[in-house]
Amino acid sequence: MHRRLHGRGALFDVDPAGLAPRLVGLRPHQHRGHPFEHPGELPFVVLTGARGLGKSAVLAELRDAYKGHTPVALIDCAEPQFAGPPAERPAESWSPVAQALLVIAEQLAAPVTGAGRITFPRLMSGLVAVAASGWGDADSERIRREVERILLLNESGSWVSGLAGRWAGKVAAKVVAAATGTGPLVSGAIEATLESVAEGFTSRRHQKASVWYRTYPNAGGHAQRGLMLLAEHFRAGGTSREHAERYLVRALLADLTEAYAGVLPRMQRLGRPLVLIDDAQTAPGPGLVEAVLSDRAQGITDQVVFVAARRGEGRGELRSAVRRELPEVARRSGWTPDAAPSSRALLVALAPLSPDDTLHIVGAVCDDVPVPPQLPHATHRLTGGNPLGIALLAESAAQNRAGSLGELLTADVRLDEDHDASPAYQALLDRLVPAEHLDELTVLAAAHDHDSACALAAALLPDTFGPADVRALRTRLAEEGLPTVPGQFVGDPFVRTLLLLRLHLRDPDHASWRTAHETLIAHYPEPGQARYRLHHELALGNTESAVAELRDTFHTADIRTWLRTLRFVASAPYFHAHDADGRDFTGHGDRRAAVALGRTDAGQEPPEGADAVLHLRVRRLLHAVWQLGDPLVLPDPKVCDRLRFELEQLSNLRPAGNALLWRASRDWPAAALAGRPMADPGDPEDTDDGPDDRSGEA
């Protein structure tokens, strides 16, 4: 079993084997073989999902599980080294894909158990040709540095440790001579490289590699001509560069195939090489993925296990891919490709963690720290099983010894020694939403649709952020893998809670918070929009209208609709600052429990003409649901008991709706205590309103 990850057994299990050992052919953390699920062509695995679901953690665990046992490489496409060329290198001779191939090959070259280094003569020759196209005005020292790093890909062992340096000097000398003479620069570098390969090695394998580029299109059977064309296509950019990059990817895979060819290598090397690509939605990810899939679709086979991780579902780029949920690949992937290149991909959606996983993570992090027994379940309800959220909240609990989740989110947490402590909610937002849109999302998190988002943008965002930007941001969230939920601009309830908390704390006097909700109250003036208006009034602590609406419609509304309205209105956020009347202001304290338990009834005067008993009962019920549905508050057993009692009493007043109200009196308190959302009574699978029921759907 894997060592650190929870809820990922479908990938790492040994007996029965998960997806990784079935593809790699090795047991994780062991140099013991395992039968291949796909002995011929194998799928290109792509892990999908939103931020924080642990995709990077899975790739890191895969690297650690197989490093030293089989060749492994891991790159993160979001790293700065892939964002642009070094300062001294022209953009025409550099690309993210070429840089990624160099970094991948450097890692794959490392010796493993029972076998020495892998050399990459084909890739080396191609990368030198590409680099040479940018040496027009370079000094000899820069050329020597670039050439030496590339030539090290062809160093087969410590006994030739000085050979790469001698090659680099020879190639650099020829390039400098070509640059200062009358001969062409690129051809001089290519000629020197091919000569170096031929002179340095006499084995059949390396001789084959030195002439591999004879088959480059229009090379006419001449390796030097093929490399010249490769460099020209690369320098031309656009689709010509993409063609050259695909050939460089093919060179890497051909070198790996060569390393496993023959009887002795097959006896020495167990399993398959493993290439891991994180943030594959960012360059160089798409180029690498497309190149491998295209070649495999054309029958150019390889035996490399690729596992990429990307945000979102990749439906645009990988529309024909086979799609599976994580549990579905636990014993067999069921992958079968068709003619489309993208069908060679197997997309595996990472699932959120379970309540049991959350319990184990919180217990492990807070091993020596006493925490409330309900904290793990409440953490799971808040995060929806998001691994990053669970881990960071557990760390905040360990460092701050705070009880409520609201306190854990606002408390400072230090994640490592190299960074200063920061509020936990801010540390989470830094990792869960696009940093360049954090301010806009903080405001728009209170919106329900495009029109309400535009109203908020007009009130709180710069004039340059208009309706087109609102649509673009909604599209960006979908591309990031966040769920699209009717009735909420930000569909993920955990992310939305964090953004709303940031909005509340944006100003010392909560001015932005009040402006946002006042704007939305004015945006929903029609009677049919009452539930939205009441939701935002409640967010400001104004409860009178919500109580009156629920009281006056109790006898006439459809009970299921009435209960859904109650849940939606009571899903209004309630943060730490409310005055004695419950209104958003300054100070601390949660007064909802006191209202729900009837401790404030004596000071309440029901409106004239209203049923006083029903009025107070609905008021207590609203505050009970408001508190028990709050993802930042641990459930109060006393409030749960009161919720059960109030719903039972209401069920006696509506014979036609008696069954639903009575069922709710059982289901809702039990769900709150277990850290689950309150679903429609009698229909526990109905969660279309989202984990905290904030979709706004009636």
TrEMBL record:
Domain of life: Bacteria
Bias (Acidic residues) ranges: 682-691
Region (Disordered): 672-698
Record SUPFAM superfamilies: P-loop containing nucleoside triphosphate hydrolases
Protein name: Uncharacterized protein
